[in-house]
Amino acid sequence: MQATATVLVYSDDANVREQVKLATGRRPAADVPEVRFLECATLPAVLSALDAGGVDVCVLDGETAPVGGMGVCRQIKDEVFHCPPVLLLIGRPQDAWLATWSRADAAVTLPVDPVEFADALAALVRGRLQVAAKAS
Known about the structure:
Elements: E1 4-10, H1 14-24, E2 34-40, H2 43-52, E3 57-61, H3 69-79, E4 86-90, H4 96-101, E5 106-109, H5 114-135
Parallel strand pairs: 1-2, 1-3, 3-4, 4-5
Helix pairs in contact: 1-5
């Protein structure tokens, strides 16, 4: 197992970024590596971080302004080669169809439920690590 998994967290709200970190803890599940967070509050920061590489999973806040996480998700799925899986934070359960439109790999509602969030994040980390293992 690799030493750490890098999780990019995009939100203009520091409280949302903190909720994500608290819900994750050191690792979202016992069978995945410890998580290192890369916090971004702007779209250019997200694109720069993805361009640099090394991101295993993206957590995008759909309620971020001026560029919401759903639009960012769709953009990076179109533009980033081997785009990491995306966990989208949505405002209401009824927004799940928008998460599908954005091509998010998973979605959970805000405020962050620690159990639901950790399960979703762990599943995406596991999937990403399996893909990486097959590629090497």
